[in-house]
Amino acid sequence: MNDDRLRLVARTLRDLAEPIGANVYFAPEAYAAYAECGLGGEGRPSSTSAYFASRGACLGQAPGPVVAAAFGVFKPAVVTAAIDEAWATTDAATLLAARERGAVASLTRIFGDDPTIAAGIPRATELLRRATDAAPAGEARALFSGLRSLGFPGTPIGDLWRVCDLTREHRGDSHIIAWVGCGLDPVQAMISTELWWRLPLRSYVRTRGWTEEEIDAALERCRAAGWMDGDEFTPAGEAIRAEIEWTTDRQERPIIEALGDDADELFSLLAPMTAAVVQAKGYPGDPADRTRYDQ
Predict the structure, then answer these.
(1) pLDDT exceeds 70 at position 165
(2) In the predicted model, what is the mean pLDDT of the chain?
(3) Domain of residue 26, residue span
């Protein structure tokens, strides 16, 4: 497989699997399930503990610094406080069950009785399982390995969600490896994402718990490294972010090669599912809208 095809397939897979796997973070059914565990209230969580603990529960009853390391870009103190709150209230196994219950209920509602989606779920799941089974287990991929250790729910929508979550977390783990290898710290990585996606500066990075002073310091580090001039990428900064994306793509090669000639079939099956999630506001926007910045 040549580089252009690898890049295209890897990024298309990212755009299509992401909303299905990550819908759980925006699903009212999931928030209600976490509330039953004592985390948050109806509709939305009252703290960040439900998010961090439910996503990190695939690592077991891990302490906050371990979860923060796996997530990569969040301020560790914020993660640790949230995890401490969660484990004082519930446990990993209970949260994993709530997360699965909420994810399946949400996707069931969103997909409704669409016959095209229903007919495509078994084959899409089969192809994605073949692809993710080909990925090495481990090699600095904490969240992917944790999810893989859980197995599959055993229901059509549950298995589809789990394999999309696996696909998402594998690329996420690969992305952390890429930006760390290029010498960025977590705040710099978030700033580079804002510039790459043409987001307002300081907007996305704030959602990861960093203070204005910490963001200021990271911006100065980016400028000192020659990656930014004022509030914009320099050519060197643009190049290093492009290298991060390409390094991420290259790490997805085992998954992409396992799909082989079936990639386009998979994309045709996932497309209506992803569209349904986005249209139902089960994910904040269409990831494909960012693709033009990834070339």
Answers:
(1) yes
(2) 94
(3) 3-179+245-293
Residue 188 inside a domain? The answer is no
* Domain count for the chain: 1
Q: What is the pLDDT of residues 30-43, one digit of tens each?
A: 999 999 999 975 54
* Per-residue tokens: 114: 């669409």
| Residue 236, in any domain of the structure | no
Which of 148, 149, 77, 26 is CA-nearest to residue 34?
A: 26
Report the range of poorest mean pLDDT among 71-75, 240-244, 281-285. Answer: 281-285
Instruction: State residue 229 phi and psi, 5-degree precision.
Output: -125, 110
- The torsion angles phi and psi of 3, rounded to 5 degrees, stand at -65, -40
User: Does the structure show a pLDDT above 80 at 269?
Assistant: yes
Position 45 pLDDT exceeds 70: no
Residue 161's pLDDT is what?
Answer: 98
So what's the pLDDT on residue 272? Answer: 98
Tokens of 13: 């897979």
Residue 211 within a domain: no
Single pTM value for the model: 0.94
CA distance 45 to 101: 16
Is 15 among the domain residues? Answer: yes
